[in-house]
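Protein modeling request. Please complete all fields; requests missing the sequence field cannot be processed.
Requester role: graduate student
Desired output: 3D structure, token encoding
Chains: 1
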Amino acid sequence: MGKIKIPKSAPSLDMTPMVDLAFLLVTFFMLTAKFRVNEAVPILPPSSHSEKILPENTLQVTIDTGGRAFFALDGQEVRRNLLSEMGQKYKIMFTDADAKRFSVMSEFGVPMSQLQAYIRGGEKERLKFDKESIGIPIDSVNNQLGDWIAFAWNEKQRFQQTNNVPKENWCRIAIKADGQTNYKAVKRVIQIFQDRNLNSFNLITNMETEQVE
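Delivered output (213 residues):
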């Protein structure tokens, strides 16, 4: 007697949970990822063996190969207050729109006389400023970088104390210089910090790769 052949059917696989999981992961990474901030000037720091990671909450001064100083600070509210104080000192009127744009900008390196135009310019205009600017003045006669540092540090201290920020998360100072930068420019920036009793700071370097023998 012949056997009854049972027709074979292709196995079905429900991909719905897999698709849902993929979309959840994509959504998670989109919401938590932080875009890399564009640097005003390309910097190649010297290498070192340090494995310490720079914290996110920083007050940073960048020095390019030409010795120009650029300034960066985290915190939108702090940056708005900082711009207001610098405007009062140098008698420059910044609008609310200026303050809003400045609060989300990355590092900058222009004198106060050019800052209004820098803030109000588009991306191309700011790139031109970054390329042609003399940087933030750091000489003893016109030490604008010193004012930026002093006002920024005071604003950071006030914000952290008012908002009960844990001390381990308080603002850190960082200096980032190109490996080809003249040491005199770096020494001058360090002196500006020390003149304001800020003697603890991080020097940003690249992790040196170990040679395999």
